[in-house]
Amino acid sequence: MADAVVDLVSKAPRFQPGGAHKPPFALVPIADLDHFVPAPPLYAWEGLVPSGCVTLFSAHGGGGKTTMMVMLAVGVAANLPLFGIQTRQGSAVFFSGEDGAGRLRYQLRHLCRHMGVSAAHVADRLFLLDATDDPTLFAEVMTAGRKEGKTTS
């Protein structure tokens, strides 16, 4: 298997800057990294969640994803550490395609009280988006008795 991969890579056409064929993605230069230190990224949750990026957190159902991510959103909005790891204060958007507004509000109230944060204090930096009434991007469908995902656009 490894030999097949090496053979495939060795036969691939080489990108030539300014050549006739432009790659579909930007080529990231790396030759200077032995002598150049790029600026470190900013993190909303130090070392774990980069700032300014959409971050997907996934796991099996019932594993606590929503609870943990709402806690992180509160931590970022209130500038509080989460599990002893520093957050960087900023705005947080929590997109839910599974739990509706009622459940999100209930959970946020409970978590804010537990974390010692007033919901009013973070309301201008914490945004909950409920996409459960209109799953515009993706829908669960049954096909031959099996659940599958299907894009809706």
Shape estimate: extended
Distance between the termini: 38 Å
Let me know the number of strands.
6
Helix content: 25-40%
Helical stretch count? Answer: 4
Give start-end ranges of low-pLDDT stretches: none
Question: Can you describe this structure?
Answer:
With 153 residues, this protein is α+β, with helices and mostly antiparallel strands. The protein has helices at 2-11, 65-78, 101-115, 119-122; strands spanning 43-45, 49-50, 92-96, 126-130, 138-143, 146-151. A two-stranded antiparallel ribbon has the order 1-2. A two-stranded parallel ribbon has the order 3-4. The longest helix has 15 residues, at 101-115.
Short recap of the structure:
The protein is of the alpha+beta class. The protein is built from four helices and six strands; from the N terminus they run αββαβααβββ. The chain starts with a helix and ends with a strand.
